[in-house]
């Protein structure tokens, strides 16, 4: 754990480039946390638009409904952390694109909704972006269960969540648990950027 904070840490974060794949509940909250912490550059990849039913867990406003998520998120980041350089890619991930989408990123945060999309991205990152750390999310639905949210390491892949609780009828995706997991993802990404590779 990084227990002390100094100018060298600030400079290291300011020089960092982090990718965020998905700008929904996990991605929007994680990106803002990283920007506020001083990460110098973020690469935001998402093709979707802000939708009203999802505002319970995403870092957007009613006024941003209908806009591309990455555009709205870049606007929100600029409002709270203007020193962060935001690169927007309104694209859907396809196998083999990871190296192009996240070139130069020391860490990539996986924040997709669909399990098959998560798997495809993780496989692509592990194969084609070997120099990057990966921080993924799995098992963030429901209410309560604070102690079950954990981070597990699998080589250069770190997975945040309880690894089992997926969204389903009667098991909602709500802001508190999603935001808690997103904060853990951001915290893990910051630790990795500063050289702490423990989960």
Task: Name some characteristics of this structure.
about 200 residues, Rossmann fold, 7-stranded mixed β-sheet, 7 strands
Question: Can you describe what's shown?
Answer:
The protein is α/β, with parallel strands linked by helices. It has a single domain (7-193), classed as NAD(P)-binding Rossmann-like Domain (Rossmann fold, 3-Layer(aba) Sandwich), CATH 3.40.50. It has six helices and seven strands. It has helices at residues 7-14, 25-37, 69-80, 98-101, 115-128, 175-193; strands at 17-21, 41-45, 85-89, 107-110, 133-137, 150-154, 157-161. It has a seven-stranded mixed beta sheet with strand order 3-2-1-4-5-7-6, with helices on both faces. The longest helix is centred in the C-terminal third of the chain and has 19 residues, at 175-193. The chain is globular and about 45 Å long. It starts with 6 loop residues before the first helix and ends in a 6-residue tail after the last helix. The mean pLDDT is 95.
Topology:
Elements: H1 7-14, E1 17-21, H2 25-37, E2 41-45, H3 69-80, E3 85-89, H4 98-101, E4 107-110, H5 115-128, E5 133-137, E6 150-154, E7 157-161, H6 175-193
Parallel strand pairs: 1-2, 1-4, 2-3, 4-5, 5-7
Antiparallel strand pairs: 6-7
Helix pairs in contact: 2-3, 2-6
């Amino acid at each position: 754990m990084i227990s002390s904070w100094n100018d060298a840490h600030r400079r290291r974060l300011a020089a960092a480039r982090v990718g965020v794949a998905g700008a929904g509940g996990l991605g929007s909250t994680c990106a803002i946390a990283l920007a506020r912490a001083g990460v110098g550059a973020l690469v935001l990849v998402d093709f979707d638009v802000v939708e009203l039913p999802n505002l319970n867990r995403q870092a957007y406003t009613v006024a941003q409904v209908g806009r591309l998520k990455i555009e709205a998120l870049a606007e929100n980041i600029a409002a709270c952390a203007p020193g962060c350089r935001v690169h927007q890619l309104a694209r859907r991930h396809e196998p083999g694109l990871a190296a192009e989408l996240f070139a130069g990123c020391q860490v990539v945060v996986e924040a997709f909704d669909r399990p098959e999309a998560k798997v495809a991205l993780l496989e692509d990152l592990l194969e084609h972006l070997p120099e990057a750390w990966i921080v993924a999310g799995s098992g963030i639905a429901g209410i309560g269960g604070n102690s079950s949210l954990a981070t597990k390491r699998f080589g250069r892949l770190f997975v945040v969540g309880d690894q089992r609780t997926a969204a389903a009828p009667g098991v909602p995706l709500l802001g508190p648990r999603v935001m808690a997991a997103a904060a853990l993802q951001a915290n893990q990404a910051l630790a990795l950027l500063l050289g702490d590779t423990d989960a």
